[in-house]
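chain below, 70 aa
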Amino acid sequence: MIIAKQVISSIIEEKKKNNKEPSIASFTEIQSVVIRLLKSGINELCKTGEIDKHKTLNGWAFTIKEKRND
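prediction:
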C-alpha cells in the first residue's frame, strides 16, 4: 500500500531530521498518523457536504449523501 509506505517514510524522515534514534516507525506511531489523516479527511467530507455525520450512543456514524438528479 502506497499510503502505508508514505506514512512510514515520513515518520522515519522526521526522526532523522531531529536526530532521534532509532530512526524507525513503530506501529503505534503509524496508527497515530493514519488516524489523524483519516479524521482530517472525514472532517473535510463533512464540510463539503459529501457525507453526513450522525451522533450515536457510542460515538459517531457517517452516511454518504445521495446525489440528486434534479
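The chain has a mean pLDDT of 94. The longest helix spans residues 27-47.
thats it, cya
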